């Protein structure tokens, strides 16, 4: 890893040297928050070709936003969201799902199991339950691949949950904040964006990569 | 953002096309989990020059690991940690702090305030309280810059908290997992690594960037 | 002990006999409340050369004032404070820390321990946590001796907590009550007084004892 | 007060200079804990003619020991008791009441009032309720002065409460700790000691002061 850092320091950092110095002095002012998965195959900055200071990135398992909760305890995702919207005043929040999501897969495999394995991961992906229920009750589109359908449903549910935070809802109502759904295919590199009206996911860039 | 994606798809993705296809079929098998901040100026994949499939990345405000807790509720960070260590069996967990951390700054500014603003961010950064107490009680090194001292203390505390998870402790004891502390200077691009024995942070690569 | 009492009765009491008789009839009217440690090496009446009726003395472990709390339960320190300020109308409250404080030491040693020993002492000295946090976040002065730094921080925090009681705050605002911080060196007999503006502790009487 | 300290430093401290230096280096090792009132007319070190390092002194309103309680919150008196018995291993605990006790008086005056004044003092002296009940039900001795009777009853109740702490009970059973009741007359300087069997208070030193 340190040799990787060496390469970065000699090449990558130099490219953004002045930006880094400026950001260190004046602080970050990103316009976009991306909520993405921890998955090692999904790097928001890479996918959006973003330089330092451009994306405020929250990454958790299965890119989930819990609903607003008044319970005690440390709500890491809600804290990051609150900071991004109220302190940094980002203009966009993008929830980005992805193919082959291990969190979604674990949820699907354990849906009928008596108890979910592990203390935390089982409880965390229970956040997908309303997504599964919504999908079962009001299928937006019939997709043959149940894993993909659930990945989409997870993004839709997280977008729905975003609206349960009053500071998000206020900013959206005032036109200061937009919410977006997206999905990344780790195998083909394809990015799909959710249409806010139909809630369907459409390919963002149709061309094939030039090799 | 979509034009950025276009550039990525035409250049970045092509470079890793086979890797992506392989990863999509065989799944991710990252050896390293990085716990980093949401800050737009800190991109683990960039700093470590890591390609797809290499880093399992959790990002939350102020790169915090809470201690093991048996309380109800969705513990997003603990869930990601559990997934990385027990399911993906990563060999390294790196907690990476950084300069000018807004979460640490908010904690410091609010330490004496009657009440912390916001529902979530205030509670979340309270995870830094044991870090502050540990620093006050057993100062590892006297640093004139209190913001930097607190950033270091936060990384040390998160490493300490990692040990409260039995699955982490077990893997460390068996020699299957190593824990690391690091700190990134967003202004100069310098990476500092924590010595596990002295708990001091030392510059990892001393050379200046070749311009 | 009874022989000690005999000596007191024959010498000490006689000296203050009339004062005692007067105080028994007309009641106490002390102008000063001292909040000091139970430590056997710190006697407020001795240090301030005070006779009967002069000092209203609260002594608890580590001379701590908890913040105002609405919870149930018997708050002994708050009760004594309330009695002194609202019933006796003292004009000064002095929080006096001291060197080698066992309560502070226990706090420092246990800051990183998994669990504090004992049912009560561990919980009581947790009142020092905000002191440690304040010190970590906004160090007033850098002191090489962490025990001393924490002793000072404890006094500062107790003074801060005094302001959380409305009856204290009211009396201070009306100019009827002053709050003071002090620290006693049990080894050298030196008394240090906190400057209310800089919050630094300065030697009160600089001369050496005449032997 | 500072001039009083000056006098102390030049005279009082010098007398105990070597003791102070020794205590600073080797720590305190008092054999006796005194639980006394905050009252400005009652100074345990004075009454027992005790020098530095001899008495571990807790002072609260009305010299009360609450019963063992498992509730949350900071129990200052219990904490000091625990520290004295388990850490310092004192051999004696003396609960010393006194004449004209304002806490006892407030309790008596408010016993029939609908609500006790103040947030804290009222709740604190409610600890005397079992003392009053015990006195009403099982009067040890009939005393014409109800204030004095209640002051005695308070000491008896505190001694009873001491036994509810398992660490006290254990030490007493092993013969390592003795509990004592005492009462000081602020007007005459008389000290009365409670007979452990009859629970009556008897004058400790009968002679009149030599003037």
UniProtKB/TrEMBL annotation, chains A, B, C, D:
EC number: 4.2.1.1
Superkingdom: Bacteria
Pfam families named in the record: Pro_CA
Reactions performed catalytically: hydrogencarbonate + H(+) = CO2 + H2O
Family annotation (InterPro entries): Carbonic_anhydrase, Carbonic_anhydrase_CS, Carbonic_anhydrase_sf
Keyword Metal-binding carried by entry: yes
Enzyme class: lyase
The entry's keywords: Lyase, Metal-binding, Zinc
Cofactor: Zn(2+)
Coiled-coil residue windows: none
Family: Belongs to the beta-class carbonic anhydrase family.
Reported function: Reversible hydration of carbon dioxide.
Protein name: Carbonic anhydrase
